[in-house]
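[step 3/7] inverse_fold.run input=structure_tokens len=218
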């Protein structure tokens, strides 16, 4: 992605924020600092790519609570917890909540930089995956109800003659619907169409749920 990525720092300790800002800017990162989780949530709109480095214990809203808010809003920012008060149970809870890393202070600067690089790469991957899913869903919405029905049976592995018999249509008509499906979905092969269908099936609020043949992909 050509879009610049930003490292967001959320910590109520001003000295810690500024020290980390200096470290990250010294190696070329774009940095935005916030003194609280509420301040970050008020400023961030979900469209900026990057990662989030935050303290786990902050007044008003903890780092783990902020992580929960990110998940609720569907934001894909990877989170790195940096804290001087961590323990094993807290680290386990953080990882189960989706935090990508948990570092205790004092930390090695290079270790943190490496973790941030990994988190930024993860964010790029998540956004590419998200954008691809949106493209597939947009293409799917172009299909007619009959084309969706035919597509579900095609990805279930059924031959055109079998689909024609099940739907009471001619094999030639099925061929036309199948060609339309491949064109509208921008699929260059049957395997690619199947992969697209699986993405639609597994996506949150996936539109194909409940269509004939959908269960065959499970």
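[step 3/7] decode complete -> sequence:
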């Amino acid at each position: 992605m050509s879009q610049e990525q930003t490292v967001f720092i959320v910590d109520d300790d001003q000295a810690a924020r500024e020290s980390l800002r200096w470290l990250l800017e010294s190696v070329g990162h774009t940095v935005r600092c916030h003194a609280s989780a509420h301040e970050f949530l008020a400023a961030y709109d979900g469209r900026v790519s990057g990662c989030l480095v935050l303290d786990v214990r902050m007044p008003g809203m903890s780092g783990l609570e902020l992580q929960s808010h990110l998940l609720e809003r569907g934001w894909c920012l990877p989170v790195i917890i940096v804290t001087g008060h961590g323990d094993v149970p807290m680290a386990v809870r953080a990882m189960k909540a989706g935090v990508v890393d948990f570092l205790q202070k004092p930390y090695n600067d290079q270790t943190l930089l490496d973790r941030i690089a990994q988190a930024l790469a993860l964010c790029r991957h998540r956004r590419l995956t998200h954008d691809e899913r949106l493209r597939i869903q947009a293409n799917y919405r172009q299909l007619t109800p009959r084309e969706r029905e035919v597509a579900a049976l095609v990805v279930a592995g059924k031959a055109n003659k079998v689909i024609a018999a099940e739907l009471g249509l001619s094999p030639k008509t099925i061929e036309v619907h199948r060609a339309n499906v491949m064109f509208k979905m921008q699929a260059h092969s049957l395997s690619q169409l199947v992969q697209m269908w699986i993405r639609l099936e597994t996506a949150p609020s996936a539109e194909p749920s409940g269509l004939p043949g959908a269960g065959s992909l499970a």
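[step 4/7] annotate
The CA atoms of residues 63 and 151 lie 44 Å apart.
The chain has nine helices and five strands.
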